[in-house]
Amino acid sequence: xxxxxxxxxxxxxxxxxxxxxGGGSLMTPLLxxxxxxxxxxxxxxxxxxxSITKTAGVxxxxxxxxxxxxxIVALMAIGSLPAAAVTLxxxxxxMSVGKEITGTITFTLGVALILTACAxxxxxxLLRNKTTEVEIDDQSSTVxxxxxxxxxxxxxxxxxxGIVLGVLVTLSSVGAGALGTVALLFLYPKMSTxxxxxxxxxxxxxxxAVAGLGHLSLGNFDLDLLLSLLIGSVPGIWIGSLISAKxxxxxxxxxxxxxxxxxxxxxxxx
Length: 270
What we know:
Order of helices and strands: HHHHHHHHHHH
Strand content: under 5%
Shape: globular
Radius of gyration: 18 Å
Helix content: over 70%
């Protein structure tokens, strides 16, 4: 175990608990810039880390709040899981012919961070513009979850959203949280915020697991790093969640958005 990795995991977990920003957008750049990990190893390890930590969140949302729309999760997974598999297949073939994939992953990571920074700001606007946020039970979810488009095009748009997330998350480990949430807010404006979060979390688990296991098969993984991050992040997320109500989100999110934008531009220009 490396104490510095655990402390970093605690710091990221604390920020995730306070702001709700996905750990990948914070953890992966930290591993690359501060600890000097190769982007591929940072992405692969962070994906498995995310699949483990998000599972606990979904158990709460599904078991306690009943706030997961499994129909939407399935539609997104229809797009994201095959997209993740195809992306991994392409990476494997690039590696087999001696192509360097670091540049591709670094560039995609930068783009994903820039999009996440924009998503953090757009999310606040979308939440303000929501016409209703009705707390209703699961039996009435067909009204609460009415989409922006007709049922046919709603399915197509949700699957396409899954495809984009599948590629981005597999290449960068970023996007399953902030980008997924913004996409759901846009596609399903009448869905309650609690259900948006629960549904996005539920979709992120199979996506990050498939992408993470794929990277594991490619050798992009560090077990000691994963265990050290988990030891630090679990209490960090718990403490962050407890103090989140005392720290104004309106101050933290713009700061984080600017930070992610700067880091993203740095990755793109490398």
